[in-house]
Design a protein that fits this description.
The complex is a heterodimer of chains A (286) and B (401).
Chain A: H1 6-33, E1 36-38, E2 41-43, H2 49-56, H3 58-92, H4 97-105, H5 112-123, H6 128-135, H7 148-172, H8 177-184, H9 189-200, H10 202-217, H11 221-226, H12 234-242, H13 248-272
Antiparallel strand pairs in A: 1-2
Helix pairs in contact in A: 1-13, 2-3, 2-13, 3-7, 3-10, 7-10, 8-9, 10-13, 12-13
Chain B: H1 9-14, H2 23-39, E1 52-57, H3 64-74, E2 77-82, H4 86-100, E3 103-107, H5 110-116, E4 157-163, E5 165-169, H6 175-178, E6 193-196, H7 199-214, H8 234-248, E7 251-255, H9 258-267, E8 272-275, H10 278-288, E9 296-299, E10 307-315, H11 323-335, H12 338-348, E11 351-352, H13 362-367, E12 380-381, H14 388-400
Parallel strand pairs in B: 1-2, 1-3, 6-7, 10-12
Antiparallel strand pairs in B: 3-10, 4-10, 4-11, 5-8, 5-9
Classes of the chains: A mainly alpha (286), B alpha/beta (401).
Keywords (chain A): Cell membrane, Membrane, Transmembrane, Transmembrane helix, Transport
Membrane topology (chain A): Multi-pass membrane protein
Protein name (chain A): ABC transporter permease
């Protein structure tokens, strides 16, 4: 496969794919964000009005702050749950490790909408939890009915399998003999974990965090079905611009801001963390 | 010669010319084949009978058994795409949807907007005999919203109708309170109210209440026309925003679909909610079967005024004359046939524009408002907001408050 064309072909296909399906839509969104809409009509009138609206209209800033807080909380919760689960699979999974990991991927076989609606049924006034409580004569748990807590539960449920899979794969490639070496030299299990296992799997953990954080930032379904009247997040408000309100230009500007926020969040993590010490091998051996 | 090229020059020379296929030829053949495969479904004479009928419609009107029969008879595949609100469908049509859809549904003033913008085309009532069964108020001579003022041609067929009235738990909410829009803003029912997630109807309905409170509902309007809750002044919109923010803390949730509202009302978690009377009828059916004990009632038009709608079937402007149009009109004819309409009424809980009294019991006639079609004239028809940008800001500020 090392013909004259194999290199350009192998690199060309993904490049064309990225250009067509990522760069071009992004450019068109950036262009649209500098136009405006008027009663469902796009007016090609170059201006900064949409960005001015986003910066000065408190509502959109509130949506973004709510989303940042929600995404951070959900990602931290996912990592906190995923670590012991993945570690337990690695330590005690034996020959069933792969089965356990695949079991975590089972929810992906159903659609996201289906999973959120199922959760709505579970957490709602007639759901399993409140239904059982009321049958036992107890008061229903109002904080899980159409609240931000319900949204957070929904997002954790949606993205936990991804974080578990990523951390599991990181641990799978981790050389466990390093822990034995640390113990031989007198390190306690806790010290071996915090000085060997955790730092050398930090990059995998960060990838898991990012794969949860970024979609949570633009989450639409969970807040829509579970969030209630006070649960509007940035992604939901952005989807509204492209849906019934038809204010596409403002929606495009919201999309650009979301993209930049995601990039900044990832950059901030990269700057704070020394990737060479985290198990990241992407820099080569130089 | 590269290492993996094992054939000798002699062997190559000996091979017959006709059977040798070089890489360039193979690639050309593959490319041509792929191109033919990809484009074949789209290269069809315009007059050819369609193999697919694509509809942009409300999900509640889908009847699988009726659709299956139509597919069998006309040898076409019915491909529906669902939407929630008119503006969503309008957006889809405007961004090239006339090429993606053959049939479209809309209500109120929206079809006339579609026709003005050439998103839909004219239809021929003579090709749809079921239209003879329309109630008089929905026939073209009385119902003018589907007729072009200039040419007098029709561009849609009325299908179902209703209001955006209030369904309430009659054991918990007194009828006199439920007769007003105020009930949806009453702190007495805090935490037990719900409204739909659709921003247009929330703002328009609140607009009626605000204009009623401000006394501007009967006063001369800036545009010289009579009051339309979809054309609100800035002062009225400010009032709407304040009222919606006050209402927010009284709401359990904004329901996304009828199934959710039905559950919320049936469980007693919600005692009053504005809706299209579909859930109300489904709840009454449940009560009749003994599945629930609660008594529900429905205010069709609140005393301040209410919103009304007439769902219609439209044909996209992308459908040419000939076989394509014929299939579309045959489909509309089937969907508006009295027998089909009866099934739709029972399945979706909607009042029909087709007179199905001969197929209905006296109870059904009362429940589906078959003798109250005249009340439609008292309602404000669903319309396009005067400024979607201003309405969007009101809605966003309320959501963020």
């Amino acid at each position: 496969m090392k013909g004259r064309w194999s290199g350009p072909l192998l690199l060309g296909v993904p490049t064309a794919f990225l250009l067509a399906l990522f760069v071009l839509p992004l450019v068109s969104m950036v262009v649209l964000s500098f136009w405006r809409t008027e009663n469902y009509h796009i007016v090609q009138d170059w201006n900064l009005g949409n960005y001015l609206t986003l910066a000065t209209e408190g509502a959109y800033v509130t949506f973004l702050v709510r989303s940042l807080v929600m995404a951070s909380l959900v990602s931290v919760i996912c990592v906190v749950i995923a670590w012991p689960v993945s570690y337990a699979i690695i330590l005690y999974g034996g020959r069933y490790r792969l089965l356990f990991t695949l079991a975590f991927a089972v929810p992906f076989l159903t659609g996201e909408v289906l999973r959120v609606i199922a959760l709505q049924g579970l957490l709602g006034p007639l759901g399993l939890i409140n239904g059982v409580l009321m049958a036992l004569g107890a008061a229903p748990l109002r904080f899980i009915m159409y609240t931000n807590v319900a949204s957070a539960i929904g997002l954790v449920y949606l993205y936990l399998p991804i974080v578990v899979t990523v951390i599991y794969l990181s641990l799978l490639n981790f050389d466990a003999r390093l822990i034995d070496a640390a113990k031989i030299f007198g390190a306690s299990p806790a010290r071996a974990f915090f000085e060997i296992t955790w730092p050398l799997n930090l990059f995998g953990t960060l990838i898991g965090f990012a794969l949860c954080f970024i979609p949570c930032l633009s989450a639409t379904l969970a807040p829509r079905f579970l969030g209630g009247p006070n649960g509007t997040l940035y992604g939901m408000a952005m989807a509204q611009q492209f849906g019934e309100s038809g204010t596409w230009a403002l929606g495009a500007a919201m999309g650009v801001v979301l993209f930049l926020t995601s990039i900044l969040a990832v950059l901030a993590v990269c700057l704070k963390v020394d990737l060479r010490r985290t198990g990241f091998t992407g820099f080569g051996r130089g | 010669m590269k290492p993996h090229e094992s054939h000798s020059a002699a062997a190559q020379a000996a091979a017959p010319a006709s059977s040798s296929v070089d890489r360039r030829q193979a690639l050309k053949t593959l490319a041509a084949g792929a191109l033919a495969t990809v484009t074949a479904p789209y290269i069809r004479p315009a007059s050819a009978a369609p193999t697919q009928l694509r509809a942009l419609m409300w999900e509640g009107y889908l009847l699988p058994d009726v659709i299956a029969g139509f597919e069998e008879k006309y040898k076409v595949k019915f491909a529906p795409t669902f939407f929630d609100g008119n503006s969503e469908a309008y957006n889809k049509l405007r961004v090239g949807g006339t090429k993606d859809f053959d049939l479209v549904q809309a209500d109120g003033f929206w079809p006339s907007l579609y026709f003005r913008e050439k998103l839909i085309r004219t239809v021929d009532y003579a090709k749809m005999p079921s239209t003879q069964h329309l109630f008089p108020v929905f026939k073209p001579d009385q119902y003018k919203l589907l007729t072009d003022e200039k040419t007098g041609v029709q561009f849609g067929v009325p299908f179902c109708w209703g209001s955006y009235g209030t369904t309430y738990n009659a054991d918990q909410v007194p009828a006199e309170k439920a007769a007003s829009i105020e009930v949806l803003f009453d702190p007495e029912f805090g935490g037990r109210l719900s409204t739909s997630a659709r921003f247009e109807e929330n703002i328009a309905l609140t607009g009626i209440l605000v204009a009623s409170r401000m006394g501007t509902i009967d006063k001369p309007r800036p545009d010289g026309k009579s009051f339309n809750p979809y054309v609100l002044t800035d002062a009225e919109l400010d009032g709407v925003e304040k009222l919606l923010i006050e209402q927010k803390k009284l709401l359990l949730t904004r329901y996304q679909d009828n199934a959710t509202l039905e559950q919320l009302l049936a469980s007693g978690a919600v005692v009053a909610a504005p809706e299209f009377a579909q859930v109300y009828r489904l709840l009454l059916a449940k009560k009749a079967k003994g599945e629930i004990d609660t008594t529900f009632a429905h205010t069709l038009v609140p005393k301040e005024g209410g919103l009304g709608w007439v769902d219609t079937w439209l044909v996209s402007s992308g459908v040419p004359d000939g076989a394509g149009l014929d299939v579309c009109q045959s489909f509309i004819d089937l969907m508006t046939a009295p027998e089909t309409m009866k099934k739709i009424a029972l399945a979706s809980g909607c009042s029909t524009t087709i007179d199905i009294r001969s197929l209905s019991t006296p109870e059904e006639q009362k429940l589906y408002l078959m003798d109250r079609t005249g009340e439609l004239s008292k309602m404000y028809m669903f319309d396009q907001p005067s400024s979607t940008e201003k309405w969007e800001r009101v809605w966003s500020r309320m959501q963020a408050a």
